[in-house]
Fold:
Amino acid sequence: QVQLVESGGGLVQAGASLRLSCAASGRTFDRYAMAWFRQAPGKERDFVAAISRSGATTFYADSVKGRFTISRDNAKNTVYLQMNGLKPEDTAVYYCAADHVVFVREISQTSADYDVWGQGTQVTVSS
Structure:
């Protein structure tokens, strides 16, 4: 089973960009679909983006489509979330998650389906 460590969060102004990274330990990173979720204070943990094992297929929440890009580098055991055009409503703790899947159709947008989680990284966007 992989272990995940996120980095790259911070405090930025609206309109700025940030790139989050999630480094995975272990030798089986390419057997996992990867996703980013976020949780604002007092709210549920929401799906942001997901990527298939190969990186060829991606999924996005409507709220971030066109602004955020998920990618992965299996040689580096790392998944990224490039966030452009940040808005105050993007403020949240961002979590990286992994789900052991075989087929693209198994990739979920539901947090309960993910097996492994990082500790989270805070993103704060000021207006």
Observations:
- DSSP finds no helices and eleven strands in the chain.
